[in-house]
Amino acid sequence: VQLQASGGGLVQAGGSLRLSCAASVTAFSRNRMGWYRQAPGKQRELVAAIFSDGFTNYADSVKGRFTISRDNAKNTVYLQMNSLKPEDTAVYYCNAYLSTKDDYWGQGTQVTVSS
User: Fold this and answer.
1) Are the C-beta atoms of residues 38 and 90 closer than 8 Å to each other?
2) What is the average pLDDT across 93-111?
3) Please, which residues bridge with residue 77 across strands?
4) pLDDT at 37 over 90
5) Residue 26: is its pLDDT beyond 90?
6) Which listed residue, of 3, 7, 34, 101, carries a Cα 20 to 30 Å from 69's Cα?
7) Which residues contact 82 (CB under 8 A, 6 or more apart)?
8) What is the pLDDT of residue 71?
9) Distance between CA atoms of 30 and 112, rounded to whole angstroms?
10) Which of 41, 45, 23, 43 lies closest to 33, judged by CA?
11) Rounded to an integer, what distance in angstroms lies between the CA atom of residue 100 and that of residue 55?
């Protein structure tokens, strides 16, 4: 099992980034896919999730700015981040959840938003 996240980087406030996570997991289309983030000194938090039926949910802090999507043919989940703010700076992690036994994390990608 491997989750490979990419797309992070340094961007100015107001800019955009798109994160990608390619997941080699069993039955990708059935997994709940999520993006989490962890800023220095803070706990990891859920940013956005997308379920197998396409239902999505977002942290209040990113609603209207971030969009999660998935391409089941490519086993990939995306996070489009617009109107980025300095407080979005964190390491972003991809998660694939199918069951308590099938709960996997990627290595993280750094997003830095300068003011």
Assistant:
1) yes
2) 95
3) 21, 70
4) yes
5) no
6) 101
7) 16, 65, 66, 67
8) 97
9) 31
10) 23
11) 20
* Token pair of 108 as six digits: 């993280």
Q: How many residues does the chain have?
A: 115
Tokens of residue 60, six digits: 């209040």
Q: Give the Cα separation of 92 and 87 in Å (integer).
A: 13
SS3 content of the chain, % helix, strand, coil (to 5): 10, 55, 40
Q: Picking from 20-24, 54-58, 60-64, 99-103, which range would have the lowest pLDDT averaged per residue?
A: 99-103
For the stretch 68-81, pLDDT in tens is 999 999 999 999 99
Q: What is the pLDDT of residues 38-64, one digit of tens each?
A: 999 999 999 999 999 999 999 999 999
| Closest C-alpha to 16, from 62, 71, 49 | 62
Asked if 42 and 25 count as a contact pair (C-beta separation under 8 A), the reply is no
- Contact between 7 and 84 under an 8 Å Cβ cutoff? The reply is no
CB 104 within 8 A of CB 95: yes
Contact present, 48 and 34 (Cβ < 8 Å): yes
